[in-house]
From TrEMBL:
<dbReference type="InterPro" id="IPR038705">
    <property type="entry name" value="YabP_sf"/>
</dbReference>
<dbReference type="GO" id="GO:0030435">
    <property type="term" value="P:sporulation resulting in formation of a cellular spore"/>
</dbReference>
<protein>
    <submittedName>
        <fullName>Sporulation protein YabP</fullName>
    </submittedName>
</protein>
<dbReference type="Pfam" id="PF07873">
    <property type="entry name" value="YabP"/>
</dbReference>
<dbReference type="InterPro" id="IPR022476">
    <property type="entry name" value="Spore_YabP/YqfC"/>
</dbReference>
<dbReference type="InterPro" id="IPR012504">
    <property type="entry name" value="Spore_YabP"/>
</dbReference>
Amino acid sequence: MNQMYDSTNSRSADGHDIVMQGRKIMEITGVKQVESFDSEEFLLLTVMGMLVIKGENLQMKNLDVDRGLVAIKGRISSLVYTDQSAGDKSKGLFSKLFK
């Protein structure tokens, strides 16, 4: 997974919106940080919490750090908000593997 950016200080708006066009293109505003991403999953910290986007052949189409905007293309299958931070998710995975 690739590490991206932290735009906490550079965001100009605190709103959070998701616009999806036909499950193929998604634009998300209010993104504070891109925690990680690959072709099957994006993990985004938004002003409304952690957002997990899953699908197939996912790619970052656009990234605007100043506006906290991320655009993703690919076949989107799910969007889930979690209460876990990215560090908690990784810790949980490792603790399950090494029980």
